[in-house]
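Contributing new records

If you add data, match the layout below exactly. Sequence lines come first and carry their own label; structure lines follow with theirs. Keep one chain per record. Anything else will be rejected by the validation script.
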Amino acid sequence: MTSGETVKPPSVTIEFLANELANELSSGSKEEHPAPSQEEEVKQDGGLQGWLQVFACWLLFINTWGLTNSFSIFETHYKRQFRTISHSNIAWIGSLQLFLTLFIGVFAARYLDGGHVRAVVVTGILFQVAGMLLTSFSNRFWQFVLVQGVCVGVGSGTLAFTSAAIIPFYFTKRRMLAAGVVSTGSSVAGVVYPLMMRELFQKVGFGWAVRILSLVMLATPSVSLVVLKPQYTIKQKKNGPLFNAAFLRDTPYTLFIISYAFMVAGVYVPYFFIQSYALELNITENTTFNIVAIMNAATFFGRFPYNYLADMFGGIAILVPCCFATAIILFLWRFVHTLSGLIVISATFCFVTGGLVSLPAATIANLTQDKSEYRTRMGMGYTVAAIGALVGNPIAGAARHGGSTDVMERWQGAWFVAGACLVLATGFMCWARVLRGGLNFKIRLLRSCGVVLNVM
């Protein structure tokens, strides 16, 4: 350009200005009102649909963990029927059921990810009801192992995993509270089933009592089929591996699921043996059913405070003191020898352990960055925990010293094994917490939102 030339401004037409204005308004609108992301669509934290899912999962919890919480009434009956079989061997029935309740989750996860939630629930109901009906006609020990331990366990596994997997997709900030409400289903079943079965045992016998229980187990989860509406806004990885070894490189996650295994190994020991222990203390049989009901009633009141606090401080921060306190209670159980003492320690134990059933699944969700990985991670966590569920109660039963004439000394090995498992669970959980959030326990871990939050 030479010095004598002038710059001609670009021509501006009305059409040009109109187009620019339209583009600007369009851009501003997108910035002020962005389209909801997949993550935002999932974060409902309530509403009619969200709480209906809580109700549906609550019904599923009744006949999964609630059945496990009531196993002592079956253990006592089987010990009376098979007097030559040890408590340790009888415990394999309930331990197989508990093992499969956790282990089957890794397989149920794949079908849930494919959108087959109702097929999964129907399968679980059929296995559970068929298993309990066959239990009512069984009369040999190996038959009970197969039908109640394996068949009912497979059904419980599909239903339990479904009830735990749905809630995190409807709740984020109040996830722990919602999980706590769901978990009260096991407490309600643990109160109702022992009292119901006590009356039925006396009036119609074991066989018809279990058949009536089967009808209840058919009716309650069937309602969930109408209510359940899983959230599939987030696309799941189809045909992914059942087990992803890469997840184990997440050290806090790995330590947590190891801790979960030790926790499950020890925490169900009183639920399996409390009635037998009470009978050996010369407490009447009718009263022992009441003790089981009182235990489970205490878990109901123990669900809400821990889950409410977990929403504020994080799941691991609440689980650590609960696990340690549970270990102390189990060690003290050796000194209990009266009805009043047994009621007090049983109720205290179940109140303290109120969060140990509901918090692990939601804690795994908080340790998961990518929600598409959640069900696989939870399935892996349940599978590892299942190992503890399988061996914990039989080992505790074997630790019972049958040769002693003193009841407290006879059972002290069982309580000490359970207490040691909870001590190990506490240690691994503390390790996971320190690796994730450091020594500052005022930090709440919430990886599912991609951040670590300071709640103080």
